[in-house]
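Could you help me review a protein record that somebody else here produced? This is what I was given.
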Amino acid sequence: MTVPYITIDGRRISVDEQPYVIAEVSANHNGKLENALKLIEVAKKSGASAVKLQTYTADTITLDCDSEEFRIRGGLWDNKTLYQLYQEAHMPWEWHKTLFEHARKCDITMFSSPFDNTAVDLLEGLNVPAYKIASFEAIDLPLIKYVASTGKPMIISTGMADAEEIAEAIEAAREGGCNELAVLHCVSGYPAAAEDYNLRTIPDMIMRHGLVTGLSDHTLDNTTALTSVALGASIIEKHFTLDRSAGGPDDSFSLEPQELAALCRDTKTAWQALGRVDYGRKSSEQGSVKFRRSLYFVKDLKAGDVITLDAVRSVRPGFGVAPKYIDMVIGATVSCSVLKNTPVTLDKLSLRC
């Protein structure tokens, strides 16, 4: 069976490779270009595979309207209108060129989530290596097709989408011309509870769609992300910030630098631990083999003595014959004198025929 993979910026992504960790900047620049530049540096230092932006303006993502249906009730952004939230959170488009140049200087891959066709056009002008479709846009099939028409690899996040909608998004990407496609299991809560993630969905998605599959994780720690690796997640996306207490729109549910570094380190360890099916003895076990159990004489015996049950025991270390041979040893005679606390070995036995 062929293992599905995609390639971003020369990096192959599949279950056979260590997880691809995407550090999501989101709104955590908090309106300052220097913060955005620093976040790129943090992502590189932490060992992230890529850093990701979001490319929209308030006007490209919503309407400047304060009627009730445009107002957020409850949660982190209570009572803001969508326009107010996105006006505060968006990454200014005039920063993009500087940020992509800085990412290249830092030698880290960077791409973005576009939220309309004009964002795609901007990003194409910056020669992005890939695109991410955000969960809320997974039902915007015309946008997916437009992104797919670039021929770049695509990652689609599936938060809130049901099985039919996920299939429609995948079909739209294929129809639009996308040949390298991945999907991310996601819960679009900010933050999301671990128990909402139902990570067993990941192997089901892999089986259904035959695509590289990963996790967009909005929980407050790394446990869910690490667990997903054991279930086949090849991509891990996580928001990160310079300071969780900075008061920005997304700061409170984002990883701080040391936590992002731990995520990059520990997902690699989790993937390495999966390994392959292997019942053989491992190199780290070689020195311990001699301390397995074996049969030892616990009495002094003379040549010709019959070995009785009280003359041998199964003990550590393992320099004698294995305990499974106890029935063969009992009733045999010793071919030479033996001392207690010495191993039972075949050369000391006259076995019964």
Summary: The chain has a mean pLDDT of 95. The radius of gyration is 30 Å. The chain is about 30% helix and 15% strand.
